[in-house]
Fold this sequence. Notes:
By secondary structure, the chain is an alpha+beta fold. The protein has 3 helices and 5 strands; from the N terminus they run ββββαααβ. The chain starts with a strand and ends in a 6-residue tail after the last strand.
Amino acid sequence: MKFFLVVMFVWISPPPDGATNAIRISEKDGDPLYFENKEACFNHASQNFLELHTVIPNVYDGAKGIITDIICMSEEGITT
Length: 80
């Protein structure tokens, strides 16, 4: 079973229209980002915690937020 990262965050700038407070991260530098188990997923998140904060302004055009939770979720049964 493969796992992927989801980061949840709170906004510290006005959120863009239609924005959510969670982002599924499925790639890094153009390469797929999947993990064989939760431990590997959380290890990657821990080692790249500061870099994960750059995802928010990249996805939401400069908007700012602070990560509040990191979830390593199984891709089984996920359709979005």
